[in-house]
């Protein structure tokens, strides 16, 4: 069993190690050699070939001859886009000039939530806006905490929770949270009442695609500031991804929260980035995360109460009024527990 801070140190060491060995920029490298490096790196390090049903050997056979004929960046980009789309994995991407130019093109059209309008419509007061989260007071003695995209680590116990009344409930909003740092899990210490195993993690440890370490348990040190007797609702949607998905899994296992919204978008592992020989960056998942039942969380977390977004409503009436059917359902759930 290892602690969260220990796993962070290990991951940092691995990222630095990969960076030192792979960040070899060479403008003269050809398209074929770059493809070979791209294929080799994923072949030896990527963890979800089986889950994504990707025949990686067939990819090599089909695309090697195509890259032999490539004569421009535009042609190469088109081929890499075809390959990356096979994964259905938003963590697998290629960056060009520090921009994620090639990534999985999800078919989902996800309307953005107008959170400012939502705050006004539902009378959110005492709003504190941090770099990584928003904290506010809803009517009827309900507190609201929203985790932002690119969430950075902040301990929940450092928040001024004594300034808020959550006697009748607490809403944690993970909607549209699509990424962040592993230290983001420290936010959850306020909901966990003791030192608990939070999840299991597994690494590739061989060149064969099914060579993995055993599963390591990782613990969180709970502060128990918000007791289990306080009803809690976690809001999730199909754009809750990566760290948002990770946090949802831990909360589902370790708290008595009710999940409202839609199945999360998934993303169940730690990512690493390296340079390809031509200077483009490659990002991929190199660990698997499992919940306490031993199931990978890559495919997403299901809600307890499903509230599907109607795109037409969210793009029109929601933007005009701030009405939020998913938040309304969360408040309804809390009223039932009152």
Describe this structure in words.
This protein has 338 residues and is of the alpha/beta class. It folds into two domains: 2-103, no CATH class; 115-191 and 226-265 and 300-337, 2-enoyl-CoA Hydratase, Chain A, domain 1, CATH 3.90.226. 31% of the residues lie in helices and 22% in strands. The protein contains ten helices and 15 strands. The strands form three sheets. A seven-stranded mixed β-sheet has the order 4-5-6-7-10-11-15, with helices on both faces. The protein has a four-stranded mixed β-sheet with strand order 1-9-8-14. Helix 2 (31-45) runs antiparallel to helix 4 (56-68). The chain is globular and about 65 Å long. The two termini are 38 Å apart.
Write the layout of secondary structure elements.
Layout lengths: L1 E2 H19 L8 H15 L3 H4 L3 H13 L4 H13 L7 E4 L2 E5 L11 H7 L3 E5 L3 E6 L3 E6 L21 E5 L21 E9 L12 E6 L10 E5 L6 H12 L3 E4 L9 E5 L5 E5 L1 E4 L14 E2 L4 H5 L1 H5 L3 H13 L1
GO molecular function: serine-type peptidase activity
Protein name: S41 family peptidase
Organism: Plebeiibacterium sediminum
Structural class: alpha/beta
CATH architectural category of the largest domain: Alpha-Beta Complex
| N/C terminus separation | 38 Å
Q: What ranges have pLDDT less than 50 throughout 5 or more consecutive residues?
A: 5-28
CATH class of the largest domain: Alpha Beta
What is the spatial order of strands in the main beta sheet? 4-5-6-7-10-11-15
Largest sheet: 7 strands, mixed
Mean pLDDT: 88
Compressed to H and E, one letter per element, the order equals EHHHHHEEHEEEEEEEHEEEEEHHH
State the total count of DSSP E strands. 15
Give the CATH H-level superfamily of the largest domain.
2-enoyl-CoA Hydratase, Chain A, domain 1
Helical run tally: 10
What name does CATH use for the topology of the largest domain? Answer: 2-enoyl-CoA Hydratase, Chain A, domain 1
Q: What percent strand?
A: 15-25%
Categorize the overall geometry. Answer: globular
> Radius of gyration from the CA trace?
22 Å
Number of domains: 2
Helix content range of the residues, please? 25-40%
